[in-house]
Design brief:
Length: 198
């Protein structure tokens, strides 16, 4: 039975690596997949999902105006598809997550979405919030803070390495912009007076 999966984490946890490995597992067994990533995140090139460890794969793209149910239905019309993979799922709209759920329910294709849970302010992305509400299964992709604890938060830094507390929710960047931290060190970085660094 097809399901909607949400694989979530903070920055630099290896979400894209896990996605690419899962897609490779299908390909190794002769099963076709459909990969999608956010159109405006072109750090790896237009229409490409890539990992920091150097692996990558071509992908179709989505923008906020796309109807993903129709996109998936059109892909299925071209031939068999064992699974749909969505990278950068935090950039989905709430409506698009519902479209993915409809594709699972009505088209019978599994959808595996990979994305951030929260932004640098500790707030849910709209796509992630809806995925948390609708996903049949959720899996955390874990990474660690510099202290060794599980990192669940992320800070956005300026050019001097200072944590930013304001700005747009979406800003494309990698290690030069974002650092994953445990909640305690995130609070300290965001200048919460009750947080102490050890």
């Amino acid at each position: 039975m097809a399901k909607l999966y949400f694989n979530y984490s903070t920055m630099n946890a290896g979400k894209s690596t896990v996605l690419l490995q899962a897609a490779h597992n299908y390909a190794e067994r002769g099963m076709a997949t459909y990969l999608l990533t956010a159109q405006f995140d072109n750090r790896a090139g237009e229409g490409r999902i890539a990992s920091r460890i150097g692996i990558g794969e071509a992908a179709d793209t989505f923008s906020l105006n796309d109807d993903l149910f129709r996109k998936i239905k059109a892909r299925l019309a071209t031939g068999p598809c064992a699974c749909v993979f969505i990278d950068e799922a935090q950039f989905l709209s709430s409506d698009q997550v519902w479209q993915l759920a409809r594709a699972v329910d009505d088209l019978g294709v599994p959808v595996m979405a990979y994305g951030l849970r929260v932004d640098f302010r500790g707030e849910l992305f709209p796509g992630s919030a809806t995925l948390l509400a609708l996903a049949d299964e959720m899996r955390e992709v874990r990474t660690i803070c510099h202290c060794g604890k599980k990192a669940t938060m992320v800070v956005r830094q300026d050019a001097e390495g200072r944590a930013l507390t304001g700005g747009n929710q979406v800003q494309i960047g990698g290690n030069e912009t974002y650092v994953s931290l445990c909640r305690r060190h995130w609070r300290a970085a965001m200048e919460d007076g009750d947080a102490t660094l050890v």
